[in-house]
Amino acid sequence: MRRNGSDGKSYADEGHQWSSSLLELNLSGNKIGDEGAAALGYGLRYCQNLQSLNLHDTKISYGIEVLLMGLKECHALQSLNLDGNFLPLHIENCENFRSKFNI
Questions:
Q1: Domain 21-101, CATH 3.80.10.10 — does that match?
Q2: What is the maximum alpha-carbon separation in the chain?
Q3: Which of 30, 31, 33, 84 is the most exposed place for a label (fewest CB within 10 A)?
């Protein structure tokens, strides 16, 4: 694992320090695609206080599955914008989110 400076902390450790204070994330218009959505889903599982996530027009389709797995840990999430993406209708993990956020 790569190290971050002389104190020996990894970049991942540093990410955990700020992740609990992240309340809002707006990536609207950034073409992160499915690979970016999967990476984001992995990181979001540490953002338990996240309240708002805007992923409008980010070119996500099947990457939504991994993203939603991470969002399950975001218990404070109140707003999720996935407009402008081509989301599959049949993904089982989407059902709770579709009803909660009217996706």
A1: yes
A2: 48
A3: 31
Which residues make Cβ contacts (< 8 Å) with residue 45, sequence separation at least 6? 69, 70, 72, 73, 74
- pTM, two decimals, is 0.75
Distances (CA, A) of 94 to 1, 6, 43, 71, 83: 33, 43, 18, 11, 14
Domains of the chain, by residue range, sit at 21-101
Cβ-contact 97, 103 below 8 angstroms: yes
pLDDT in tens, 63-103: 988 898 888 888 899 999 998 998 887 665 566 666 666 55
Name residue 9's amino acid. K
